[in-house]
Amino acid sequence: MRLIGAASVVFILALAFAISAPASRAEQTVATSEREPATRHKDGQAIFRFDTFGDEQFWTDVLRMHEVIPTVDPATALAVGLKVDADALPASLVKELRAGRVDLKDPAVTISLLRLNAVVGVKGTVDRGGRLTKVGVTCALCHSSVDDSLAPGVGKRLDGRANTDLNVGAIVALSPALDEPTRAEFRSWGPGKYDPRHHAFDGTNIIPLNSPSVPIVIPPIYDLKGVGFETVTADGPISYWNSYVGVGQMGGRGNFADPRIGLFIRQTPDLVTPKLAALLEYQLSLRSPKPGRGSFNAEAARRGKHVFRNQARCSTCHQGPHFTDVLSGPDRRVPLLHDPSEVGTDPEYASRSATGKYRTTPLRGLLQHPPYFHDGSAPDLMAVVNHYDRLFGLNLSANQKADLVEYLKSL
Predict the structure, then answer these.
(1) The pLDDT value given to residue 38
(2) 178 & 58 share domain
(3) Peptide bond into 269 cis (omega under 30)
(4) Phi, psi at residue 84, to the nearest 5°?
(5) What does each C-alpha distance from 125 to 19, 49, 133 come to in angstroms?
(6) Is-contact 157 144, C-beta < 8 A?
(7) 381-392 vs 398-410: helix axis angle to the nearest 10?
(8) Residues 318, 324: contact at Cβ < 8 Å?
């Protein structure tokens, strides 16, 4: 059996760049579900940014990425979408980077940067001799970016943003545990995608789920408070998905069970479940970025709002403050979903989920995360508008389409 799962693979990417060592605040977090809200928020941020849930058992023991990372230079790591937290860098290093006096082609610089725990979403342990001994990843790897304020790929953290620069396949192919067919499969993915339905990891073995791989776009995770069912197929609420990913995809030590997809994982001690409440508290605090000045035409957006509500009939499904109808069914505990044929999207990924359908996508912050649709088939918002214009026979004029795009940019 091939050794790496596409679903888990997304997190390996950071491995090519990360080997920081200091213990994080998240490692001290226990029984967070009983904490006060403010404390849970603080703990949740630390968990999101720094907690590996013990997934070194996967990335180190099975994938052996600690053998590869020391050979990767910073320029290569940045080129495949890994990010560096500028706030974790000492002032002296910031000054050298600004002056262009840091050799980004030297793998030793990678070690120096990662020793500072500055690589977003990656943790490593380096011994006194400078040897990387362990590597793990965190939630922030895929669901954080940086503002590029210091350099491309280096800046202040932007938690909740999808890292659509992340080239999962390019990094996965570096694992010495992979055979060549698996390497070829993941090289074909491209930036910003992973497949959470291909394999799972049970703490010891890679469990095949579905084949061939069907990667999807890494989603943003901001403005989820009140949405109700947050994944593209609405398999469950946030903590369900955090458990699924933390245990089965990242390879953390914990428990997960869902008879709908036939997946049952049990490990002790459970390092994931006790932290879900605090992690949820932090994730629900993340807000979508406001459109920047000059990023859309305000007058056209006002006209586009009218098109959205009337001629284009978008508000039929994109309802209310969150622009989704997922909670509008007769029972709010059961998501209202749409068959792939109803919305003209690829059915393959949905067929591998627990629901077999898609939920209406919330629209806040759309401008920040192209490409669109779960498979990235729409490169920009005009492509989205054209898709639905054709599917529903809307016969929108060119001006109406342009105005509608400007409105979507404004959300």
Answers:
(1) 67
(2) yes
(3) yes
(4) -120, 130
(5) 6, 16, 6
(6) yes
(7) 130
(8) yes
349 and 272 housed in the same domain: no
Distance CA 6, CA 54 (A): 20
Provide the whole-model pTM: 0.87
Q: In whole angstroms, what is the distance from residue 212 CA to residue 397 CA?
A: 40
Single-letter code of the amino acid located at 379: P
Q: How far apart are CA 345 and CA 369, in angstroms?
A: 18
Of the CA atoms within 13 Å of residue 294, those in its CB half-sphere come to 0
Which element (helix H / strand E) includes 215? none
Which one-letter amino acid corresponds to residue 33? Answer: S
- Quick count: other Cβ atoms within 10 Å of Cβ 97? 18
293, part of any domain = no
In 3D space, the residue among 352, 316, 384, 318 whose CA is nearest the CA of residue 233 turns out to be 352
**Pairing state of beta strands 157-159 and 122-126?**
unpaired
Rg of the chain, C-alpha, whole Å: 21
Distance in angstroms (rounded) separating the CA atoms of residues 19 and 25: 17
Please say which residue of 283, 313, 338 terminates a domain: 283
Dist. CA 336–CA 139, nearest whole Å: 27
> The tokens 């040897």 sit on which residue?
131
Number of neighbouring beta carbons within 10 Å of residue 299: 10
The rounded average pLDDT for each run of 10 residues, N- to C-terminus, in the chain (411 residues) is: 36 34 37 57 93 96 93 93 95 90 87 88 89 94 95 96 90 88 85 92 92 93 91 94 97 97 97 97 94 94 98 95 94 95 95 96 92 95 98 98 98 94
Same domain, yes or no: 312 and 276? no
Name the DSSP letter for residue 289.
Answer: P
Distance separating alpha carbons of residues 183 and 199, to the nearest angstrom: 15
Residues 180 and 303 both lie in one domain? no
Pairing status of strand 84-85 against strand 154-155: parallel
Bridge partners of 217, per DSSP, are 193
3-class DSSP state for residue 385?
helix
Q: What is the DSSP letter of 84?
A: E
Both tokens of 265, joined, read 């994982």
What span, in angstroms and rounded, lies between the C-alpha atoms of 257 and 1? 23
Does residue 289 belong to any structural domain of this protein?
no
